[in-house]
Amino acid sequence: MQDSQKPDLDESLNVTQSHDRAMREAAAVAREKHVDEGGREPLSLWVFGASAFILIFAGLALGNAGSFFNYNETVKSDYVRKTFDSGDNSGPPPGEALKIYMAKGEKIYGKCIGCHAPDGKGGGAYPALAGSEWALGETERFAMVVLNGLSGPTSTGKTYGVMPAQGIGMSDVDLAAVMTYVRNAFGNSKGDVVTKEMAAEAIKISEARANPGSPVTADELKADHLKDLPGDKLDPTTMIDPVTLEPVEAAAE
Amino acid sequence: MSNPPESSIDHDPTVRAAIDRSLRHPVMFFFTSGAAWLAVAILLGIISSAKVHSPQFLGDCAWFTYGRVFAAHQSALLYGWGCQAAFGMMIWLMARLSRQECRNAGTILMAGHVWNFAISIGVIGILAGGGTGMPWMDMPSFAWIPMLLSYGAILIWSMVQFKVRPEGHTYISQWYLMAALIWFPWFFGSAHLLVHGFGGSPLGAAGVNAWYHSALLLLFFAPVGIGMAYYLVPKVTGRPVFNYSMSLLGFWTLAAIAPWAGLQKLTGAPIPNFLPYLGAFAGILFAMPAALAGINLLKTASSEMETVNLSPTLRFTIWGLIFLLVLGAASVVLNSPGVMKITQFTMSGYGYDLLAVYGFFSFIAFGSIYFIVPRITRREWLSRRLIKWHFFLSIYGIGAIIVVALFGGLMQGVGQEEYLQPWENAAGRAFPYAVLVTTAWSFLLLSNVFFFLHLTLMWLRLGRRSSHPTLLVTPHHSSPHGPEGDIDNVGSASAH
């Protein structure tokens, strides 16, 4: 019998009851098993085999590192491709001259779109390139207009104001491509190629003009430039290299 | 924990119940908000994956451009779901194994809210265009200091509990947990400090970033997942670990190897030649600790196949271990220099990450959630059907993503190697695989909506009041343990 004056220290807790309560409230906890780590089962042989395989593979990867801690050697020589392989696979495939010049010219024509419009009709405020006599006619006259710009009347006799010179920074390839494009797009179908050699001549002629840098006029064009650019004609179906624009040897096809 | 003396066996459930009760709020908070983040991450994953095959989808909205959504998807998956699930598992398991009630649940819960807040503004920051563009370190640089601080507040008490544990044997799970506890602030702090703090060269930052990426996988998610599996498998089957010395060997190989991996991601970059190959060497060798832990635990479970089949915990955990073995095999294949050359810039890296984070780690996290939550809420899972839906949709979804991303990445890589062809061809090769990944993510979204609902009901203490665990095979109404609510039948149900 407990003294009611003393604090309730012991014997008052019914162990069985409280245990039951724990079981009831925490059934999931009560049914848990003990963790026992003490297994000493022997390892299968194939685990060692697999480990050896992994080690060999890892060693092969490390072997690629070459000489260790050599800071001069940065990239494994065959990992990053520095140049195109030689042989048939080198470079993009060749194509027909007219198509390749046209493709390049279409990009350069992007500079001209602002005035002459994507369809080359000029939209009324600027001269049309579609069907233009000067664009389709003698190539030297056309090249002078592109390189130096134009003031005064155009081929139709109408005056539109001054066309600014386009020659600054323009390479022979650019000039050849854009001229070929204009002569064969927008319904124009001249069918010939202005080669980069012809364009190089055009740039020379342009630099040798009496007053270089100023826009050409109809009079000057008629007096000095009414002829085709010098240079060999290129058959538009010749297969050429799209990078160098040189004809490819028939053997390489 | 060796077998305790007979007298303490009666006492044990009371201690365990007290430990579980002390950690109820923080652990449930981490699991539930982790599950919600997982759903967000999957939603963002669907959007970003849809953009791979249908670029015009949500194309006009700057917040949902691919670069932002994909980064937000990864951050939400890693820091919203992965880290929070890991925190919940770690604080619970460390308290259990150290036999100590948690006395700082309030602090941990508070720090958990700070963590959630930090990653929320981090993910919003990414979507708003403030991401750093570094994989797995995408969140704006203001997020990482609160993250590191709240990490410290969450896990310092686990270290304290380990320190004041009753003396005796240290179980292998505690080795792994202590390692993860210490490694996380090491690589997280040093990587963020080197990238955001000191602002070195961009090439150096890329290297640190690649190392951090692999460290988060191999030095945090891997030890937490493996450590948890070393607890769950022997606990539920009641079998001792198949070969305990092998588990120690597995731990030390992981500790020795994993910190060296990572720079294989920079192969071909202008860094000293030995660094990427050393990274590949360590990356391949990760297969060893993975195989040692995976085989050891699968052997442990193989003697109790019926239990594995019945128990939701083991069903998920065992599949997590199978994915761990697959991860080891994938590490060997993907890190070998010949394959790396093809797959380095393809979707196979993403497949590898998902195999680790979702296949291996998350499956073990799901397993431990199915084990831990009934204990801390004192309710049993409501529905075995919801668990089964979660399991089957997850396994098919993630299986599809992994196979497709690894294999599709190979096809994409072969396409990229044909450098004379337009780039569009390589993208075209990846197209059907990208469609499949989106479909699989949709499966996973469905599966995790079930999971999140189920978990929320458990947190609201709306689980079943019963002494019988929710098992996967027998329907509740014909339970072999007697009618529902029969709580005198303690101990008869073993497979949970």
Automatic annotation (TrEMBL), chain A:
Ranges for domain Cytochrome c: 100-186
Pfam families in the cross-refs: Cytochrom_C (PF00034)
InterPro entries listed in its UniProt record: Cyt_c-like_dom, Cyt_c-like_dom_sf, Cytochrome_c-type_DH
Gene3D superfamilies per UniProt: Cytochrome c-like domain (1.10.760.10)
Transmembrane segments: 43-62
Organism superkingdom: Bacteria
Alphabetical UniProt keywords: Heme, Iron, Membrane, Metal-binding, Transmembrane, Transmembrane helix
Region (Disordered): 210-241
Keyword Cell division applies: no
Bias type Basic and acidic residues, positions: 219-235
Name used for this protein in its record: Cytochrome c domain-containing protein
Organism of provenance: Haloferula helveola
TrEMBL record, chain B:
Region (Disordered): 473-496
Keywords recorded for this protein, A-Z: Electron transport, Membrane, Respiratory chain, Transmembrane, Transmembrane helix, Transport
Protein name, entry field: Cytochrome oxidase subunit I profile domain-containing protein
Domain Cytochrome oxidase subunit I profile: from-to ranges: 211-496
Family annotation (InterPro entries): Cyt_c_oxase-like_su1_dom (IPR023616), Cyt_c_oxase-like_su1_sf (IPR036927), Cyt_C_Oxase_1 (IPR000883)
Any Pfam family matching the protein: COX1
Coiled-coil region(s): none
Transmembrane segments: 27-47, 76-95, 107-130, 142-162, 174-198, 210-232, 244-262, 274-295, 316-334, 354-373, 393-411, 431-460
Organism domain of life: Bacteria
